[in-house]
Amino acid sequence: MKKILKKIRLPIKIIKTQIREHFYYGFRLVASMMTTIARCGILLILYWYVYRLNNGVINGTTFLFAAWSIFFYFAFLTLQLRTIAKLIMQDVQSGNVEILFSKPISYLSYRMWWQVGSGIYYFLVTTTLGVIALAFLIGFPTTMKIGVFIPTLILTFFCGCILSLFIYSIVGLFSFWVEDINPIYWIVDKMIMILGGSFLPIALFPALMYKISLFSPFGAANMVTHTVYESWRTNWYQLVGVQLFWIILLGLITYFMFKKAKEKVSVNGG
Amino acid sequence: MEDKYIMKELKFSLYAIKKNIQNSAELRTSFLMNVVGMAINNISFIILWGFFVKSVGIIGGWTVADIVGLQGFVALCFGIVFSAGDGIRRLADYAASGSFDRFMLSPKNLLVRIATASFGTSALGDMVFGIVCLVIYASLLHASILQILLMVLLVFIAVVVFFSAAVVIYSTTFYFTDASGTVGGFFELFLSPALFHGGAFQGVMRFIFTFLVPSLLIGTLPVEIVRDLSFKKLLMVSVLAIIWFLLSIKLFYRAVRKYESTNFMTFGN
Amino acid sequence: MNSNSITVSHLTKKFTFSAKNSSASWLKNLFSPETKEIVAVNNISFSVKSGERIAFIGPNGAGKSTTIKMLTGILFPTLGKVDILGFDPTKDRKKLAYQIGTVFGQRSQLLPNLPLTDSLEFFGVMYDLSEKEIKTRISELVELFDLGSFITQPVRKLSLGQRMRAEVAASLIHKPKIILLDEPTIGLDVVAKKMLRDLLLKINKEEGTTIFLTSHDVGDIESLCNRTIIINHGEIIKDLPTENLAKTFVYEKYIDLVAQDNFTDFPLLPEGISYLSKDINKITVVVDINKINVQESLKKLLTLFKVEDIDVYNADLETVIRHIYEKDSQKN
């Protein structure tokens, strides 16, 4: 027990420190929150108009489901987990990686906790406000009222976080070999954007694209967007299973890649 | 005398851009990867909105061809402004690191100096993508000579609007500490609606994103002007472009007075 | 009883990189580039006792930073071994990290947007100190480094001198046995430099911390370090007590001659004496006392020049070090 407490002490400290920084620069946080709410809001208004033109139903779903699905995508985005790729790249390019390598920590897990810490407060506040606003404006779909919804949402959320961190860490670790990982980052990020149900909710996906979204790691990273639909009630365990499969596979890739990367370190200096 | 000064500034800007391109092109593989990667990145928006039209049908008279035209205009604006003028979007980093000082000390026009301080290699991919999209759009539209000329004119106007909006947004850097995340978010608020299906913007939303946030001026309205040969909209867009340009210069120089220099040291956390 | 805290044996580090061949095609350069190898550190060996204060110096590109990075486990050696306090940095990097502190002059490890106290607490937790230990240690460091006047300010608002004191304080939060400093006084004014050096001497004396320093500042070397290791082209060229370093060129004497009126003529000098600088008001000569002694050289110089004043002195440490670098470069 003592060992576990010792191990989580630093991650907790990292998260606390990051949250403290948010309070210190409150206006920065408010500005970022307003931006996210606005972006999501614009999209929801557009879809509300589009659904109205189509008599409220498109592809067998209503605006209610599409709205919550899009909201979940943007809420997940506020965690900013994808920024870990660019942080790793910056560390390597600037040589700042040497500061962290000289500390008694695992560089990669430190970076992951740092990333979680930098987004968690923003995520909690934005999500809470968003849920209240949506509940007030459009109400909850029936799926969200069933008993299994909350526990499976939490489970798939955590799996999505871990998977996102692995995917973007792998992208970031490429910077130990490749000078500029931005092209790789863009391609991966767009795959997640398309298959995760961002600007186009998954309910409007063509059949093939829907299948790819379900079984690819890019779609699995944003599985939270699937939780609002009727099919979640019966299929949740399959979808969580897909997430777990990718977590194990990409976790192994991350581990071995990081091991190789440590040997590849070549820091500027004389 | 004024003309000579302007010519000198222009000459230096072109020289700075040339040097930046040479600097970027030295890393040849990275250069190409950036260009190709960005083009692939942009195709995703066409895929997304293409599937949208397939599922939802025609909204506001907008077809898949119009989506291609929209992406073309926006990508080309983005590419032109952020290739030669990539320094604008690095403003937050320059301010945070204190290296903004060197721009303040430069004997050149401050805004031009900052804009041309860096060359955005990836934005070349946007330019190539934008041009290809517009060519495809023109052929899908069976565009007349007039429509093609309008497209060229509208690219110019849209670039002015895009540049002005970027200057206004990135100038807010000086009002925040460690602003790059926040200001990046503001920019997304401008850019994202510009990439959305134009036909879905009606009523209040269209008003807001035409007159308050100029997102529709760089893509949606140019497409509608070319498609419908609407000279009324052309006049409106031109006037708004001039207003935004003048506003951006004024706001930029006001914001610069807020700059607080800091000691240079990289932070590694 | 003193024991070795650092032992380096036959340490070598080679870097390979792709080099563009201007005569080959772009395609060949992309898929099958030429590779070049640089030997940054070449078969160096040395040991450092507990409590020593070492200056590890050399010209730019000599291999100093590469060596330090191998000592801390950041870089993996190509050949050779490193033992620090019984740990192999390549295998026990994390365990070793608990025992060492690092300060990089041009890179900050502090949290830029928060007050200094937050950074110190943060590192306290990172090094597994208890809450009580953290509180106690912070009070000690605040007093020792005189941080009280700015401890509540965000780090990015501190002056460079304040920030460097804070950096060193943060690197000592866990009472490391060894502190490695890479150009810690760069950019500091003379007062700030002296303050930092005195603080380092104090922690070395009171806590027995071994100091391993790289610096281009001769003042750092002279005032702080009792031993100097000089590296150039990846090899150790000198390893001796700092006080003996000054005596390396003891066979050279410098004589300044101040003119009574103006020096109009600069005749050929006797063997063993050479001009260092010539001016109508002042001449500086270098005397090789292996060839001619000081008395003899003064006699001869006074017959050649009408002087108002004479000054005879040894080479300063900066000149000595420069000579060492130059002589070694000529050999290579």
- In whole angstroms, the N-to-C terminal distance of chain A is 45 Å
What fraction strand of chain A?
Answer: under 5%
* Cα radius of gyration of chain A in angstroms: 20 Å
Strand order of the largest sheet of chain C: 5-7-8-3-9-10
Note down, in words, how this protein is organized.
The complex is a heterotrimer of chains A (270), B (269) and C (332). Chain A is mainly α and 270 residues long. Chain A is built from 11 helices and 2 strands; from the N terminus they run ααββααααααααα. In chain A, strand 1 (57-58) and strand 2 form a beta hairpin. Chain A is globular and about 60 Å long. Chain B has helices at 2-26, 28-56, 64-84, 91-97, 101-104, 110-115, 121-141, 145-171, 180-195, 203-212, 220-228, 231-256; one strand at residues 266-267. The model of chain B has no long low-confidence stretch (mean pLDDT 85). Chain C has 332 residues and is α/β, with parallel strands linked by helices. Chain C has helices spanning 26-31, 64-71, 93-97, 116-126, 131-145, 160-171, 190-207, 218-224, 242-246, 294-304, 317-331, and strands spanning 4-19, 34-49, 53-57, 79-84, 100-104, 107-108, 178-182, 210-214, 227-232, 235-241, 252-259, 273-278, 282-288, 307-314. Chain C contains 11 helices and 14 strands. The A-B interface holds A 25, 27-28, 31-32, 35-36, 38-39, 42-43, 45-47, 49-50, 53-54, 58-59, 91, 94, 96-100, 114, 179-180, 182-184, 186-187, 190-191, 193-194, 198-200, 204-206, 209 and B 27, 29-30, 33-34, 36-38, 40-41, 44, 47-49, 51-52, 54-57, 59, 122, 176-179, 181-182, 185-186, 188-189, 192-193, 196-197, 200-202, 205, 266-269. Strand 1 of chain B pairs parallel with strand 6 of chain C, so a sheet runs across the interface.
